[in-house]
Amino acid sequence: MLDEGVQIMRQAWTEGTATLAGQHYQVDGAIVRPLPLQEGGIPLWIAGGGEKVTLKIAARYAQYTNYAAPSPEEFARKSEILKGHCDTVGTDYDKIVRSANFNVFIGENEADVRKRFDAYTARLEKSSGPRRRRPRSCSTAPTGPAPPSAPPRRSSRSSARCATWA
Fold this sequence. Notes:
Blueprint: H1 2-15, E1 17-21, E2 26-31, E3 45-47, H2 54-61, E4 64-67, H3 72-89, E5 97-100, E6 104-107, H4 110-128, E7 135-142, E8 158-165
Parallel strand pairs: 3-4, 4-5
Antiparallel strand pairs: 1-2, 6-8, 7-8
Helix pairs in contact: 2-3
């Protein structure tokens, strides 16, 4: 579905018309005017880290990507998979800007961090339904006193990254 949608947008923004008889979308001569000012159309962001499909679509069409990688190691691993797909489809990997999301919750102590995380999760579930994957844990790192070479901190709060998914 994503691949077909991207094909339609790409055609529309580069050629001014789009035609696709796909499995999910059927478009026959849709006219899109005026064309974007950018040469080659509007830059495409493909977000998601699906290794077999989404990253392959990103390799084929994206100028920008964004994955939900819970660690620098996972970001590097996803980037290597994207690079492999780029090699396969003939895209210059270095021309794709890669980014990642990290949610950080800051509180007075570990219990406060957990409370803030739970409230955030409840808000998400209220608007989008329960997630299939649940956070396993929050990794808590007390900020404590800063080393002498670091800029001064305003407080000694704890922070946690609650992005380890089961």
